[in-house]
UniProtKB/TrEMBL annotation:
Name this polypeptide is given: Choline dehydrogenase
Top-level taxon in the UniProt lineage: Bacteria
A Gene Ontology molecular function term of the record: oxidoreductase activity, acting on CH-OH group of donors
Lineage: Bacteria, Pseudomonadati, Pseudomonadota, Betaproteobacteria, Burkholderiales
Binding-site residues for FAD, renumbered to this chain: V85, V231
C-alpha cells in the first residue's frame, strides 16, 4: 500500500469509477487511487454474455442485497443485485446501451439550475467515450449518425449476434399496434421497436474495467488500484477556513492487509462512485445523512443531510408470459443435453447464439395511453420464460414481454441499520406506492395484450400464461403486477443533485457534497430523476462530465 498522499481517491471501481480513474490518471502530475470492495474481474462467467446468470446472486461478483418486504409487491422481497467486482454492475448487468430521452436531461437542467445537464451538452460526453459499430468504416453510417454517436471512444457498442423469429413477429405486431420501427434508440427520443444494441466486443461482454483500466490506466505510475478493500467511513475534519464547514481528508479502508487510511494531498478530492446503495451507505456511516437516523445508531452527526438515502427510484418490470405454438424458443432449445451442447459449440466457434445473448434482445418504447406527451413504457422481450429470475426455464415454448414504467412516481430509501459497513443497509424502493404507478401498471398490461393480439403473432397462437386473461379490472391488474413484477436493476437518486435551496439535494449541480469540501459523488445516485431507459450508460456520462470539470 502506498505511503504517499493522493490527489484523487475514487471509491468504487464500477461503471463510473473505472472511467474516472482513466481520465484523472491521464494527468501524470496527479496521483489517483481507485478502491474496490470486490475482487478482480477474472471470473470467466463475467466475460461470456449469458454469464450474468452465474454472476447475479454469486457473492464473488454481487453484493447479494435484498429489498425489505414491499407492500406494493404484496409483501414480497426482491433480490437486488449490485456489482461487487472490478467493473461493478457493468460486469454483471444486461449490457444494453441506452441513453434515455433528451427530455430527461432537459429536466435535470431545470431541477439543478445548471444548463450543463441539457441534452446537447451531455451528448458531447456520451459521444466522447462511445465506440459505435456503425462508425467502424467511414461512409457506411446513415446520414447524420455521426453527429449523434461517437466512433473513437473506449465504450464499445455492437449489434446483437442472434435473432429469433418469435421476436421478429413481436416487433411486427408492435408496429401493427402503432409503435414505429426504429434502428436507433439513442438519438434523443427512443420511441419505437427494434433490437437492442449492446456493450459487447466480438461476442464478449465489454465491461468498464476492459474499456478504461486495461491496459491504459494500469500502465501509469501515478495510478494505484486496491481490490478487496471496503471503505468503512470517510475521514472528515472541521475546515478552519470555513466556519462550521467540513473537509474530507481521506478514507478508512479495510483491506486484506488490515485497516489503511489513504489521505488526500492539499486540494485533493474523494469521489464516491459506489452506486445508489453504496454511496449513501458510506455517507451515512461517515456521519453525513439524516440526523435522527444517525443519532439513533449512535453515530456522530457531522452534517445533517436528510436527502442522503432518500429519493430512491427504480424501474419495476411486469413480466407477462405467453405460451406459443410452432415457434422455437430457448425453453425447448436448451431443454436437452444435446441442445445445450450445440449452444455451447455455436458460441465456441462463432461467438454467437444463446450464449452471446443479453438478458433481453428486443426492445420497445411507447406510451401507456395516447394522452402521454412522451414514451413512458419500455419493453424487454425475450424468447424464453421462467417463474422467476434464477429459476428453471418452463418446459413449453413461450416468450416473455416485460414492461416497465419509465417515470415512476414512487420513491424509496436506502438506510443503514447499524454503524458497521459489513451490515447491509435496508433497501425500501416502495414500488407501486402511488395511484399513478398502479394505474400505469394496469394500462401497460392491457397494452401488452393489444400487441399480442395483432395478426403478426396469430400464427403462433399466443396464450397468456401470466398474469392470466381472467384479470381485467385496474384493481386486479395492479394487484397482479405486485405478484409478478420484479426489479430491472436500475436504482438511482439516493444522493440527488439539486439547486442550493433544495433541502433534499445531497450534491450541487457539479456533484459536490453540500457543506463538505473535497468530497463529490459521481454515480447513478446523483440523478434527481430516473432516465427513460437502462441506466448504465447515463452513469458513464455523469462520470465523463465530472472528469471534464476536474481536468479543467
Amino acid at each position: 500500500m502506498s505511503k504517499e498522499g493522493f490527489d484523487y481517491i475514487i471509491v468504487g471501481a464500477g461503471t463510473a469509477g473505472c472511467l474516472l480513474a482513466n481520465r484523472l490518471s491521464a494527468n501524470r502530475h496527479k496521483r489517483v487511487l481507485l478502491i474496490e470492495a470486490g475482487g478482480k474481474d477474472d471470473y470467466h462467467w463475467i466475460h461470456i454474455p449469458v454469464g450474468y446468470l452465474y454472476c447475479i446472486g454469486n457473492p464473488r461478483t454481487d453484493w447479494c442485497f435484498s429489498t425489505e418486504a414491499e407492500p406494493g409487491l404484496n409483501g414480497r422481497s426482491l433480490r437486488y443485485p449490485r456489482g461487487k467486482v472490478l467493473g461493478g454492475c457493468s460486469s454483471i448487468n444486461g449490457m444494453i446501451y441506452m441513453r434515455g430521452q433528451s427530455r430527461d436531461y432537459e429536466h435535470w437542467a431545470e431541477l439543478t439550475g445548471d444548463d450543463t445537464w441539457r441534452w446537447q451538452r451531455v451528448l458531447r460526453a456520451f459521444r466522447r467515450h462511445e465506440n459505435h459499430w456503425r462508425l467502424d468504416k467511414p461512409g457506411t453510417a446513415p446520414e447524420g449518425f455521426a453527429a449523434m454517436h461517437g466512433g473513437k471512444g473506449e465504450w464499445r457498442v455492437e449489434q446483437q449476434r442472434l435473432r429469433w423469429p418469435i421476436l421478429d413477429a413481436f416487433a411486427a405486431a408492435a408496429e401493427q399496434a402503432g409503435i414505429p420501427a426504429t434502428s436507433d434508440f439513442n438519438a434523443g427520443t427512443n420511441e419505437g421497436v427494434g433490437y437492442f444494441e449492446v456493450n459487447q466486443k466480438k461476442g464478449w461482454r465489454w465491461n468498464t474495467a476492459k474499456a478504461f483500466l486495461r491496459p491504459t490506466a494500469f500502465g501509469r505510475p501515478n495510478f494505484e488500484l486496491w481490490t478487496g478493500a471496503q471503505v468503512r467511513r470517510l475521514r472528515l475534519m472541521h475546515d478552519s477556513t470555513d466556519a462550521g464547514g467540513l473537509r474530507c481528508s481521506g478514507a478508512e479502508v479495510l483491506t486484506p492487509h488490515g485497516v489503511e487510511q489513504p489521505w488526500l494531498n492539499p486540494g485533493g478530492e474523494v469521489i464516491l462512485a459506489a452506486g445508489s446503495v453504496g454511496s449513501p451507505q458510506i455517507l451515512q456511516l461517515s456521519g453525513l445523512g439524516p440526523g435522527a437516523l444517525l443519532q439513533g445508531l449512535g453515530l456522530t452527526v457531522e452534517k445533517d443531510l436528510p436527502g442522503v438515502g432518500a429519493n430512491l427510484q427504480d424501474h419495476l418490470q411486469i413480466r407477462a408470459v405467453y405460451k406459443v405454438q410452432g415457434a422455437s424458443t430457448l425453453n425447448t432449445r436448451a431443454a436437452s443435453l444435446w441442445g445445450k451442447a450445440m449452444i455451447g459449440l455455436e458460441y465456441a466457434l462463432r461467438r454467437s447464439g444463446p450464449m452471446s445473448m443479453a438478458p433481453s434482445q428486443l426492445g420497445a418504447f411507447t406510451r401507456s395511453s395516447p394522452d402521454r406527451a412522451w414514451p413512458d413504457l419500455e419493453y424487454h422481450v425475450q424468447p424464453l420464460s421462467l417463474d422467476a429470475f434464477g429459476e428453471p426455464l418452463h418446459s413449453f415454448n413461450a416468450f416473455t414481454a416485460s414492461v416497465c414504467n419509465l417515470n415512476p412516481t414512487s420513491r424509496g430509501t436506502v438506510r443503514i441499520t447499524a454503524p458497521d459497513a459489513a451490515t447491509a443497509p435496508a433497501i425500501r424502493p416502495n414500488y407501486l406506492s402511488t395511484d399513478e404507478d398502479r394505474k400505469i401498471a394496469a394500462e401497460s398490461l392491457r397494452l401488452t395484450r393489444r400487441i399480442v393480439s395483432q395478426p403478426a403473432l396469430a400464427a403462433f397462437k399466443p396464450e397468456e400464461y401470466k398474469p392470466g386473461p381472467q384479470y381485467q379490472t385496474d384493481e386486479e391488474l395492479a394487484r397482479l403486477a405486485g405478484d409478478i413484477a420484479t426489479t430491472i436493476f436500475h436504482p438511482v437518486g439516493t444522493c440527488k443533485m439539486g439547486r442550493p435551496g433544495d433541502p433534499m439535494a445531497v450534491t450541487d449541480a457539479r456533484l459536490r457534497v453540500r457543506g463538505v469540501t473535497g468530497l463529490r459523488v459521481a454515480d447513478a445516485s446523483v440523478m434527481p430523476t430516473i432516465t427513460s431507459g437502462n441506466t448504465n450508460s447515463p452513469t458513464l456520462m455523469i462520470a465523463e462530465k465530472l472528469a471534464g470539470w476536474l481536468a479543467g
